[in-house]
Amino acid sequence: MTEDKWQQIKENITKRFTIEEEGMEDLLAETGEGQVKLGEAEFIIFESPLGRLKLQFGKKPRVEDKVYHYSHRAGTGARVEYKFSDEELVNTFKAFKWNETDDDWKEIDAEGFNF
């Protein structure tokens, strides 16, 4: 997804639906050292015929390498160490639907999206 396509989607949503909230949020990842901020994402929350939806367009560094650290001792887990690019960014697009029973956002499978 490109920045231009994201702007078109936001314009279409603004014309058709009532916007509840929009803004920026941090993209966080769990690492061996705890949570780390990878980038930022712009989001928009609105009420649609499908229910309450949240669309998120984010920018974060490209993953260049993954290093797996295993332990051969019983009871200890493995961890993954990521190496991120300093120059190259990738765009992400995610859609979420509000789940009333869990009182949380549930990600919608992206296989059905057509860009």
Automatic annotation (TrEMBL):
Top-level taxon: Bacteria
Name of protein: Uncharacterized protein
Source organism: Candidatus Doudnabacteria bacterium RIFCSPLOWO2_02_FULL_48_13
